[in-house]
Amino acid sequence: DAGVIQSPRHEVTEMGQEVTLRCKPISGHDYLFWYRQTMMRGLELLIYFNNNVPIDDSGMPEDRFSAKMPNASFSTLKIQPSEPRDSAVYFCASSLTSGISRSKNIQYFGAGTRLSVL
Amino acid sequence: AQKVTQAQTEISVVEKEDVTLDCVYETRDTTYYLFWYKQPPSGELVFLIRRNSFDEQNEISGRYSWNFQKSTSSFNFTITASQVVDSAVYFCALSDAISGGDNKLIFGAGTRLAVHP
Asked: What is the mean pLDDT of residues A104-117?
């Protein structure tokens, strides 16, 4: 399996621009998570989906942040407009919670997108 | 409320030393999962181990071993004969997925391990 795939790996943009981060979860996984990692706050859960439905977005910092999961194999995290304080590494993770797989309930992470907002 | 505490912010050792990374957790659930993840300098988060709350048997995988003690709410991670490639940030995490929770992970702040040659 290819694992969780995130794109782009690096994004540099100017304040005020729209930024879209993309994630392809592991095939068959039913949960998808978006995290943000900063030096000050560590790893923060932003939002997560179950079977493409957003379950909890209480971690989304502001209305400038939005996330969608139009189908089981794709999710986006959008920031509009972006601000310098949004600079961070954004991780996507997926997990399988059904069945009897040994990997059940283990979150597997993508390589992350390093976002720099100038 | 659930909480994971990794009191050691940074640890520095010389190659071949043994090192233990501490993890203390808080939860009201009687059944839960505990995890360790590794984040090497390249930045990705790599899953290392998952342990169920009802299985307190210690686990060994090569140079890695984990000591789970429910009585002290601890899940410590020991690297034996450390190597430079072990240099990374290590995260401990907690999930209440077993007890019907939503598979969310509560992460500790991480411990940065530097292994010097």
From this structure: 94
